[in-house]
Amino acid sequence: MTKRVKRTFTPEFKKQMVALYESGKPRKVIIEEYDLTPSVLDNWIRQSRATGSFKAKDNLTSEQKELRKRNTQLEMENDILKQAALIFGRKFK
Known about the structure:
By secondary structure, this protein is mainly alpha-helical. The chain is built from four helices and no strands.
């Protein structure tokens, strides 16, 4: 089995695929005709219905957004502590 090369698709192409699906074209036919994976088409359909956007950051749940915000805060605090450790390390030598 050969490994599939990761491809990128434009938002316009994604919208067209979702529109084909919503107009009644069978999912299996779209997948075969455009050489897509079932999961990628399902993700596009889900994203289109949820937010109308295909950007990952637009499709985060409120919990995911809160976790990212908290993670950023913790990374900043960690950087501050690293800097403090360097400063105090120099003073005690």
